[in-house]
Amino acid sequence: MIKEIINEIKNADTILVAGHIMPDGDDLSSVTSMVMGLEKIGKKVVGVIDDEIPEYLSGFEAINKCVRDFDCAKNNPADLIIIVDASSPDRVGRVQDLFEYKRVIVIDHHATNLNYGNINWVVPESASAAQLVLEVLKELNVEYDEELATINLLGIATDTGFFKYSNTNSKVFTDAAYLVDKGANLNKITNQILENKPIEHIKLMKDVLEEMRFEFDNKLAYSTVSLEMLNKYGIEQKDTPPFVGDLRSLRGVEVAIMYNQAKDNEYHISMRSKSWFDVSEVAVHFGGGGHKKAAGFSYKTDNIEELMKKVSNFIGEKL
Amino acid sequence: MIKEIINEIKNADTILVAGHIMPDGDDLSSVTSMVMGLEKIGKKVVGVIDDEIPEYLSGFEAINKCVRDFDCAKNNPADLIIIVDASSPDRVGRVQDLFEYKRVIVIDHHATNLNYGNINWVVPESASAAQLVLEVLKELNVEYDEELATINLLGIATDTGFFKYSNTNSKVFTDAAYLVDKGANLNKITNQILENKPIEHIKLMKDVLEEMRFEFDNKLAYSTVSLEMLNKYGIEQKDTPPFVGDLRSLRGVEVAIMYNQAKDNEYHISMRSKSWFDVSEVAVHFGGGGHKKAAGFSYKTDNIEELMKKVSNFIGEKL
């Protein structure tokens, strides 16, 4: 499969690399690394994400240099589209409008990927999409420098929760060692992502802890961030911190959920499990998707209590 | 150096392995791994730490099996003492009383090590003592199983802040990959250490955040945990959570300090820096020690405000 991808890349002059909407660290790392790597072997490349870059990821020069908005994609010709980390066409936003005129390669690690490209390289065992990009760039003999190594490591670090989640297999460590040897600056990544919390976020956290509720003998923990809470501290919705990990970290909690309000009548629900519970089943039931231990969905409602009750009931039957 | 150590081990029948007081994850991992590894090659081994094991590390069967108290050390003969992770003799508690009758090997990664053994293998570039133990056991051709691999990885994980601190070099990742390949269960480590927070700790955290103060344009952040705060939530002093990392993670903070009350008139002060500040200088000035980005000291006073002022003044001159 990777050989086919290499051939397609070699035969293309201009390439569009796209990631998914609501981009996370792995997505931005994968798009940026692919753009930088392909540029190093002489391709004309445009990186595109049809959404805003969250504040916590905006401190990386390489991302700001390589990732453009949809208009830029529309106006740039490309022989080939490479999609990274997006499990379905609707996840790439308006970039899907360009699909019918181009060859499309999909590179992803979500088991739920719909294989919507002409070539689909989907590796669910891979902890991050960034590692698949690393494989491609290694195969293309791209020479890594500090900037590329750092931005490639970013995706591995963030999608493994900085080497903590259960997807952290020995390949994760081997790839991280490779990139650190190539000059990757892990300190820059941790300082930007983990050690750069606005003080307002910690104030918001106090409120989230006040709202925290437990059910089923503390096996389920959940809380909410409302628009009102965000306004109180001047935090933008897209910058809502991922408190769901803090909830999961509590003793006895198997499933943690954050109900993050996105609009007056819409919520983004983020779920994590600790050991055995499959939160992707819950996500799929409510119209979303994800992995066994990390999944989510969006839901339109102006009655959050009702939604919480629905979700709790659904989970309670399995807990 | 390691060859000499291997020779001493080969020539000894009974071995005492000791770690430092106020043991952390790396210390307990190093002692336990060394004990288990040496037992696998047929030595009679006793592991000793002259202090209590903190609650957050008590969930590891291997530690409870291998680490005994001082009486056990006193009553067991040993041809050889191996000290791990302890930079000075007073750090091993009463175990130092046994030194004059035995050969002593010191294996450590603290640059401040006093070289107080007959053989001293001190490698400041090593992120953890557990990695030096791994080197020794590899050299002895010890066969790793899941239990040994997991307990050996524990020290690497905890002393690098789970692969986040600036000491996380490519050797850290290579060693982690090796141990995961040998069956190390990283998930067990993260679940035990990071995902097992008593709910009371998060309540205490809210209080710590209330007490938090900033100085020098937010470059210094500090807070305190008093015995009264611990009592309020029924938390034992030895189980005081390491909030200093939470303080350092805030935007703009270069130095973070926690003043943890140990007795009515004694405090344990824990310091972390983010990028450039050397907190070990501060620690040494006040009678303690440590690394550039993580150091600490103990201080006898019944006036914590006065101590805070002293420390702030000392730091302020350098910030």
UniProtKB/TrEMBL annotation, chains A, B:
Residues 15-156 form the DDH domain. One of its GO terms (molecular function) is nucleic acid binding. Residues 218-316 form the DHHA1 domain. It holds the Pfam family DHH. InterPro entries: DDH_dom, DHH_sf, DHHA1_dom, Oligoribo/pAp-PDE_c-di-AMP_PDE. It comes from the Bacteria. This is Phosphoesterase RecJ-like protein.
